[in-house]
Amino acid sequence: MHLTLVVPELIWPEPDEQDTFADLACPGLCTLLARSRRQQLPAQSVEATLAEFFGLPVQPPYAALRLAGENPAPAAAAGAWLCADPVHLRLHQERLLLAEGDRLELALDEAQALLDELNRHFAEVGRFHPACAERWYLQLAADHQPGGGDALPLSAVAGRRVARQLPETPDLRWLRRLLNEAQMVLHRHPVNEAREAAGRPTINSLWLWGAGMLPPRLGSEFTGVWSDDALARGLALCAQAAVHAPPVDAASLLRALEQHGRHLLVLDALQRPVHYQDAEAYRSRLRELDRDWFAPLQQALAGGRLATIELCAPTAYGLLTWRSGRAEQWRLWRRPCALQATALALAKGAE
Questions:
Q1: Do 339 and 30 touch, CB atoms closer than 8 A?
Q2: Which domains does the chain have, with CATH numbers?
Q3: Taking the model in full, what pTM does it have?
């Protein structure tokens, strides 16, 4: 039985921050990493990492794939789609700082009121659909099919400064016009006026990304995918792999797994703390992951219940992968080192 574990932002991106790394005990993770073979590749988003597992090209149709994984999906995935996620942009040191929808405490009735106005204004372009309050989609009309170019996935810019929202390519000129008009519609909407009066962040823009149509059946080596991430679920469904909600811990997963097969597990508890520089939340989540996942999985690998583990982590240091089998976990001379030492070594490798 083989397990691929995807953990975005596994390593805190500032290796010199003593307060973050001080007394941060995660013995299961450190043992697993010390006795694994590491690969460090250029940085990429978690969305691109998931897409690569399913053999997709450089610019996958993220929107249609994510829509297919929504439960329930707000609409059939036929035609061309865009992710049109609600965001808040504010000026910080002459650059725009972006906060994504789940940081804005946006209620579903607020989202629906905003989308109703967008649909009235852009009826000729397509139709907006909410999957939930913080994830929106735009189903494009036949005469507004996407051209070349695309924006970065939302995970690559959440909590960070952005220079522009859409690439300056001729193919996306119409989409930049749509975005500018959408910002004006959102600015004067009563929902945002009420939020501003209450001292709450407004939904003053959209993050438009992931354009394209749902591809034909995908290939995959995975027999099962365990995740509540809509994109991971959509990829699995298009590859006809079994889709499961993530268990509460490794013990539950190991009881549920078959004796043979390849499984993909996505654990994204560290992503938000890193994006929004919440060191205390990062430390707390990492300790929980070590207790519930890394330590028991390392023990299961050493004990032969798992044949291999591939731990894949999209981070600021690059796309990091650690691979290990049972025999490697018994190389006791490979002593675990503190997580900060790993971070410092990775920072040197990324220079």
A1: yes
A2: 2-56+217-350 (3.40.720.10), 62-213 (no CATH)
A3: 0.93
